[in-house]
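Hi C.,

You asked whether I'd gotten around to modeling the 126-residue construct. I have! Everything is below, sequence then structure, no commentary in between.
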Amino acid sequence: MSDGPDLYSIADLAREFGISTRAIRFYESKGLIAPERLGATRVFRRRDRARLILILRGKRLGFSLRDISDYLALYDADRGQQVNLLAEKVDERLELLEQQLADLQTTIAELQEIRKLARTRVSPAS
């Protein structure tokens, strides 16, 4: 049984994921996806589509192309290595985001205090 088409054009994938064909060609140039060619036409298979999903998810979560490339390199390799690398990268990303969140919370609190002080000093005359 097939869940969908076996072949996709670059326009099909661009439309489905709301990205430009240029972005897809960029990921191809970085070796993250490898469509087949029929003459000058790129033909993407389900595997390419699945990899594109992982690339876009990785970018959305803030991973670098290098991190995504390392993960995809293990795509057909040992599943245990892939899971271990993913867990390691997720831990690193979470640690960074948690630190950024703490920094933002500190900055917000400082700005709120400054705003409060500024408003009390410039309160309208009654």
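If it helps when you're writing up: The first strand starts at residue 7 and ends at 8.

Thanks,
B.
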